[in-house]
Amino acid sequence: MNVLYEVADRIATLTLNRPEVANAQSSALLDELDAAWTRAAEDDDVAVIVLRGEGRHFSSGHDLNDRWPPPEEITLEWIYRAESRRYLEYTLRWRNVPKPSIAAVQGRCIAGGLMLCWPCDLIVAAEDALFSDPVVTMGIGGVEYHGHTWELGARKAKEILFTGRPLTAEEAERIGMVNRVVPRDRLDAESRALAERIAAMPPFGLRQAKRAVNQTLDVQGFHAAVQSVFDVHQTGHGNALSVGGYPILVKLDEMKAKLQ
Questions:
Q1: What is the DSSP-derived secondary structure letter of residue 9?
Q2: What percent of the chain has pLDDT over 90?
Q3: Is the pTM above the cut of 0.85?
Q4: How confident is the model at residue 251 (pLDDT cuts 50, 70, 90)?
Q5: Could you tell me the CA-to-CA distances from 147 to 6, 109, 157, 199, 251 in Å, in that order?
Q6: CB-based contacts of 22, cutoff 8 Å, min separation 6
Q7: Which of 64-73, 89-98, 106-115, 178-187 has the lowest mean pLDDT?
Q8: CA gap 142, 115 in Å, rounded
Q9: What's the pLDDT score for residue 114?
Q10: How far apart are CA 157 and CA 147, in angstroms?
C-alpha cells in the first residue's frame, strides 16, 4: 500500500509509504491519500488527522517517472485535466476537511511535497527538514498549489522561487510556516502529543475555529488566488510544449543533484 491508515485515540494517522523513492507521489499514492483523507473526514471517531512520511524524507515531490504518456501524445489539455484533479482539487479538499490536521515533516520536502503539508492546519518539522520548490529550473513558475505567498510572505516566496534553494526548518518556523521544530527522533512523539491535546477539545469548537481562519484567508483572496495561479502554472507547461519538449520529463535524480 502506498498510504497506511491507522486510527487510535481519536487520531487518524496517514502515512506516506514509499520510502524507497523518498515518498515520491505517484498517481496511485495521491489517489490513496485522497481516499484516506476522505475516510478520516467522514469517521465520527476521528477528531484530528496526522500526515507523516515513512523513512528518511517526507516527500521528494511528484514521481516524474510515473504518469506521463509518450511525449508525442502529451497535450496541454491532458496536463490541465490531470493536474486539476490531483494537484488542485485534492489539495483544496484536504485544506477544507473540517477537522484539525497536522503534518509531521522530516528530511526533504520538495515541490509536490509542499502540496501535502501546506493544506494541513499545523506543521511540526524535524530539525533536519528542508522545504524547497525548484520548479523554476524546469521553466515553470512554481508548483501547482501556490501556497508560497501565503505561507512565506511575498519577498521570501520570491527568493525561494527565484533561487530554488531550500528553506530550513528554523527559517520556516521563524516566518510562521512551521509551528514548531523538534529533534528528528522526537518528531512522531511530539506530533502525537500535539494531536492528543487538540483531540481533547470540543469537536464543534475545533470545526468552527478552523472555518473561521480558513474563511478569513479566503475573504483575503486565498481561494481565488490559488485557482488563478494554477492557470499561470499551466502557461509554463504550454511554453515547454511549444519550444521543443516537456521539461517535467527531466530525470528526478538530476533535479535532486542540483539541490545538494
A1: T
A2: 75
A3: yes
A4: very low
A5: 28, 14, 9, 26, 25
A6: 55, 56, 57, 59, 60, 107, 108
A7: 64-73
A8: 11
A9: 97
A10: 9
Q: Is residue 7 a contact partner of residue 46, using CB atoms and an 8 Å limit?
A: yes
Give me the count of residues in the chain: 260
CB 18 within 8 A of CB 24: yes
Side-chain half-sphere exposure of 126, counting CA atoms within 13 A: 21
- With cell 531550500, the residue in question is 166
Backbone angles phi, psi at 99, to 5 degrees: -135, 145
Q: What are the backbone angles phi and psi of residue 234, rounded to the nearest 5°?
A: -65, -25
Residue that the C-alpha cell 484539525 belongs to:
100
CA torsion through residues 99, 210, 177, 116, sign: positive
Give bridge partners of residue 131 from the DSSP assignment: 109, 167
Q: Cell numbers 489539495 correspond to what residue?
A: 91
Under a CB-based contact definition with an 8 Å cutoff, are residues 101 and 94 in contact? yes
Least confident of 49-58, 72-81, 132-141: 72-81
Phi, psi of 140, deg, nearest 5: -125, 145
**Comparing C-alpha atoms, which of 126, 215, 111 is closest to residue 168?**
126
* Per-residue pLDDT, 260: 39
* Nearest CA-CA partner of 124 in 59, 54, 173: 173
Do residues 26 and 60 touch, judged by C-beta distance below 8 A? no
Gap between the Cα atoms of 104 and 124, Å rounded: 5
166 three-class SS: coil
Per-residue pLDDT of 148-186, as tens digits, reads 999 999 999 999 999 999 999 999 999 999 999 999 999
Mean pLDDT of the chain: 91
